[in-house]
Amino acid sequence: MLAKNKDLSTTEEEALINQGIADDPDTFELDESFFACAVKAGTADTQSIVHAVRGKQRTPVKQQVTLRLPENVIDYFKKGGKGWQTRLSHTLEEYVKNHR
């Protein structure tokens, strides 16, 4: 963090800023693939942008719900990384299939 009234040259300040960016896990360098998918604002409707990035939903039979689950359940599925909601859904589907 920069101290108040600290006299830094432009090079030093730039280095501190770049180090702060590099240390932040939520930042990333925008590359050519990012800009290849970019759409100029106001030229396409939201739905077409969503389909261009995500694609059409394969099985449009799911229903969106809000569900409160114990923290340990959520932690268990999140520990597996990306796709935790899909794994949770598959687990619930398997349970229903085996308990009919």
Q: Taking Cα atoms only, what radius of gyration do you get, to the nearest Å?
A: 22 Å
Strand element count: 0
The rough form would be described as elongated
Largest sheet: none
Rounded to the nearest angstrom, the distance between the terminal CA atoms is 59 Å
Structural domain tally: 1
Give your account of this protein's structure:
- With 100 residues, the protein is mainly α.
- It has one domain (10-98).
- It is 51% helix and 0% strand.
- The radius of gyration is 22 Å and the shape is elongated.
Task: Put the structure in a nutshell.
This protein has helices spanning 10-23, 32-36, 46-54, 71-78, 84-98. With 100 residues, it is mainly α. It is elongated and about 70 Å long.
Keywords summarizing the entry:
single chain; 100 residues; mainly alpha; 5 helices; 0% strand; elongated
What order do the helices and strands come in, and which of them pair?
Layout: H1 10-23, H2 32-36, H3 46-54, H4 71-78, H5 84-98
